[in-house]
Target: G protein-coupled receptor 78
Amino acid sequence: MSIPEFLLEVSIVVISVVSLLTNLSVLLCFTQSAELRSHVPGIFVLNLSFSNILLTVINMPATFLGVAKSAKPFGDLFCNAVSFSETFITTNAMLSMAALSMDRWIAVVFPLSYSSKMRYRDALLIVAYSWLHSLTFSLTQLMMDWGGYSHTYASCTVHLDAEEASQLTAYATFTALFHCSSFALCLLVLCFAYLKVLRVARSHCKRIDVITVQTLLLLVDIHPSVKERCLAQQKKRRQRASKKICIFIGSFILCFSPYVLTRLVELLPSVHIPRYWGIATKCLFYAKASSDPFVYCLLRQQYRKVLVSVISRFMRKDQYFMSVHSTSSTLDTTDDNCVARIT
Model:
């Protein structure tokens, strides 16, 4: 085994473990908090988390075996099923991210009419469209028999065998439409929604800044350190929205664009994609599943509160059982001593 292959295998294992733990933590937060379940965006978060868990359980182990064995991990039937699931899951996950960005846009730009524009029924319809959209491409791939093992990516994915060169035009059209309707469409929605949110956030910050400056001018006797602290908080407030939106859009581009561009470039007959590059882009593609819980959930105060309360409850129960066990063992020891003295 070469060093690059070993590093790629370790990367897949680490990404799989982190993705499984973090996405299960998101589901745990939803089961333990009625407040989170009452929010409409929770439907999109649940859909995204389920997609990431399925990707972690089904596709990542298959890719790990493909890298380790340098060959197809199992038979053709299993490989077709894995490639079908990858197409469906990744498309569904991207559309869930786009739905979350649109929900945030409506909540920030139209706060007074948000409850009428985004209801539970509307969210369920969006999720249903996401599933239908994903099934359309995955079923088309299955019917055309374009799923199989790709040595370039060491995984079961959308793939055209060399023996089927006559279908190259149809396959190229399908691949272009697939990535345009998933990656490109979702990127366009993310940029539109979050840039609108950023514009509104900046306008609010400007209003707050004006009020802060006027207040500081009126308070003549205020200490200079307090003024400096207010100005520092003012600067942090301006940068906070920009940082969050850069994380939302930047993580999407960083994780998905290398893989998508590689899949489009490999359609050219004269281009050969190196195997290590293909697997590396696949690992980066998988890394989005492990970063989504942090980007959309676990870094928020509501989720952190629920997760900390669950962990603290678990720790208290564990300490209680340990104290009960130690007490019972002490009582048993005392009884044995009493019996020994009597005899």
About this structure: The chain has one domain: 3-200+237-308. The chain has a mean pLDDT of 84. The CA atoms of residues 225 and 277 lie 53 Å apart.
